[in-house]
Design a protein that fits this description.
Elements (H helix, E strand, L loop, with lengths): L33 H6 L4 H10 L25 E3 L22 H18 L15 H30 L11 H4 L7 H16 L19 H16 L9 H18 L23 E10 L1 H6 L11 E3 L1 H4 L11 H4 L4 E3 L11 H6 E2 L34 E2 L17 E9 H16 L12 H9 L16 H12 L6 H7 L8 E9 L5 E9 L13 H6 L12
Antiparallel strand pairs: 1-3, 2-7, 4-9, 5-6, 8-9
Amino acid sequence: MKDYKYIILPALTAAVLCVSCVDLDYSEVTTNNEEWVYQSPQYGIERLVSSVYARVPNGLSKNFEGGSGATFAAACDEADCALSHANIRKLYNGGWSPINPFSYTWENSYKAIAEANNFLEKLDKIDLSAYENNNDFQAMKNKFELFEYETRFLRAYFYFELVRAYGDVPFTLKSLTNAEANQLSRTSAITIMDWIVDEMNAVAEFLPITYANELNTDIGRATKPMCLALKARTLLYKASPLFNTSDNKQWWLDAARANHDLLVRAEGWGIKLGLYSELWGPANADGTEVIFAVKRGASSSWETYNYPVGVENGQSGMCPTQSLVDAYEYIDSQQSFGERHPESVINLSQNDPYENLDPRFAMTICKNGDIWPNYNTTPIETFEGGLNASPLTNATNTGYYLKKYCDPNVNISTNNATTTLHAWIVMRLGEFYLNYAEAIYNYYGDANAKGEFTLSANDAVNAILDRTDVAMPHWTASPTDWLQRYERERMVEMAFEDQRFWDIRRWKKGDTQKQVNTISITKDADGQLLLHRGSLNRGWNNKFYFFPIPFTEISKNPNLTQNPDWDK
């Protein structure tokens, strides 16, 4: 580890990678100047690192829209946004282009990388000598020594964000002037992924498993499990068809090994699967399953955005689709909703198609007749003319409303408003059971094969199904359509966690997004409720597999090429 002496911060013209100058004027740290930061490392330097952490995106309040609003769930077949003016619709309705590129990921990631590079270049100039007589000096020194490895983790994380969205991107590990940045060409996604893996192998050695015994115990600081998780996720993406263009089977084995390594270590680290319902609520960041979460303050913005219209101040927000509902399986069989009920009309007064459905359905999705949220004593009515349905403005056009990540105890009514703590889960153990299942199956082609590992693909899926509040039947067979069933299971387990949008892309299954299944409910002359299947047509073009690079960046850098077909 570094022997810190003092720090000299870079001039305020530092810049990186095809973005406008990164203004290191400490506006996120303090109103004091560079001299203050130099003289007060305990506060100034720590907050410089915190400013990199602050750029980690979260679906609750820092997403591509720049604030509270729809997440990527509403840009794939998980959901449709009920608000007709929402920016999310531009991702599939023709409003997306290099001129209107939704550049949050590009700009935010490169600003974070610039801050990280600047910090890492000055590590050997940190001076803590003024604090040597403090009782907690050793703990403070340990904390500052960890900053290097925390920042390296964050830099790698932001490069993953870029590669996932753009594929090949400019890559540098040093600060650049504008002129230098605007001469960079794109580095291949595979090269950057390999660097991320090597970097996580190097960094994990120095980071703690937990900060429980450290000077600062804040949730979200980089840990050894986070490093292994980023490595495992990166290798899964590398092995997936979008990036694995030569169908290299070894890459699936590499992904299986990395994900299995995390799984076998997790229990010893105290990371284990808990209740599915614990993934949201005021204490979700402290759940046993969480590997990486971004804590937010107390608010009701997510609830306000997603509670049903007709509930006072509810905006409807992201409404789950029938495509998602069709993926849930029944407790009494391996049939999914879509397989058991393909009919175009279901008489809900005579038949309850939701009976015995996977318990995660009721925890995730609000349907007609549910009491939701908890303080709303009137059942939700999504049938036409109902209290929460058309013709009300912004009523659901999918037939459902969202429960997941909403705290049903939050009251958004004007006279009785309440708030609660929220945290966005970036990485959790359940994802890596699924990652492992996908990787090992793609390598062996047999869902019961264990090979060199302790788990088969079915074993990994069953670990998730064994949650006490899920308790779904085990998977035992290895049919030829196992991957199709797995993709449904992944859609169900990870619903509304901004995974499906990226899964569709890495699997190269964009054609599945051209039509999204919905329902409408009517009452007939006898008062019987009838469920009608419908659909929403959406635009899909294969250029959507990667985001367009902002035109402003292309125009500044003659060596920066556009992603395929976005310049047409």
